[in-house]
Amino acid sequence: MVRGGCHGMNARQAGKAEGRVSYGLYIGRNHTADGIAYLAGYGDEPSSHWLEIVPRRHHAPGTVISVGVTQQADLPGRMSEIPQVAETSRHIRVSYSHYKGVPSPLTNGGLNEHGVAVRDIWSPSRPELIAMTPVDQSGPNYSDLARILLERARTARDGVEIIADLIARHGYADYGGNSHLIADAEEAWVVIEFSGGQGLWVAERLGPDAIRASRPGYVGVVPVHDSRPADFLYPAHFVSFARGQGWYSGEGPFDANAVYGDGRGRWAGAAWIEAEMAGRARRPGKIGLADVIWAVRTARLTGDTAGYGQVVPLATPAHKELRMLWHTQVGAVAAPFVPVFMGVAEVPEEYRAHRYLSGGEAARFLDTRHADKGRSDTVSLIPQGIESTRSASAAGKRLLNLIFQHHEAFLPEATALWEAIEAELSRSQAGIVRSAAVLLDAGESELATGLLTYYSHTELRRALDSIEQLAQSLELRTRYRHGFRTDPVPLSPPQIW
């Protein structure tokens, strides 16, 4: 599994290999009021975001997929092709349009039809590993792994084994280290993929009593002296490579974060939210959906960098069409969470890819005149019909900026509105689930699809209406009470990250 190292970067260059951090939170089922585990979080991405429901697909023998990074990446590499499996699973994901040297569209994860949820989160490796990353590194990148897991994994443990196999067979193209938080109804796994081109990774199992926040992802002490550690997985050379580099003596505890990571263990934000959720878990009512949503929305953790919000109840419904996640198109401080079901036929136009903040769109037109002269690269990648609809992302960002200029007054008002909307949605979606289950039990799958699609589309558009209406109100009050700030330094509530 060890790949030949090449010292393609010096220490100064290695220091530049910083990633988008993102945030993931797993709550084991023993801590929740409904006995269901949750996986939640968001992606730290400045480019455009859109919601996708990707159908199950069959692939002909010999089909390949393109993976890796380009020479434009912070840690440059090359693209390569790996085999595609015969069938890929239906899944819901949030995609985005840009990260330096990583071909778009990209994803941080989502939920598939088998009930496997994935979140991708940065996890910095030690500088020496970053420095030894080959200049021609190849293999799946962080987004490739998240997408492949959604396409192929049937359990969380299966997801770990898929990552291990892909790294062993094809390598791993990284930007300084990364992690994935993979969960199903029974358990979750934190997987750290270390930089350096050495095939190094480690995975820790999280059971029903776990509360784990990743920002960045971390794994601490690994029981390497136990011949069969039930809750940890790692490659055969995991310890020997560290000993060979002089990073581990071979005696005492093996702290993976200290040996191969940044050595900081849990960052302050992760420690804070874990303690907050542990306190809520000790209440008689334990942790409910509203608590998990709060953990993604709280302004101490969520601001403009949070490109979207996602909460996945890891339930086991009788029909896979009833698996669902709660979604916001922007940071949850500026939008309510809305249920989106696996059985929805398509995403409403307002939540699909728009030109707003999309990589490369500033140099393109919704016009073919230049394309007629051999300049097809000047034509927008966004269909004109989609661009003619409202953009949920743009509307949410406008509201976020209105809220944050006077967050002491406006944030409590917005939060109370979102919580009221979500409470109503929590009640109504339970009835929709029961109704759709009756239809599916009766073999009326098309009617069930119609019901789920109508419900999710209606509520997503109602959420967008509420965002725009609140923005209109806050704009009016801002204009006449405060005026609009022109200071180049943006305002926001204090964050712990």
Automatic annotation (TrEMBL):
Pfam families: Peptidase_C69. InterPro entries: Peptidase_C69. It comes from the Bacteria. It is an enzyme of class 3 (hydrolase). It catalyses: an L-aminoacyl-L-amino acid + H2O = 2 an L-alpha-amino acid. The keyword Protease applies. Keywords: Dipeptidase, Hydrolase, Protease. Its EC number is 3.4.-.-. Belongs to the peptidase C69 family. PANTHER family: LD30995P, SECERNIN. This is Dipeptidase.
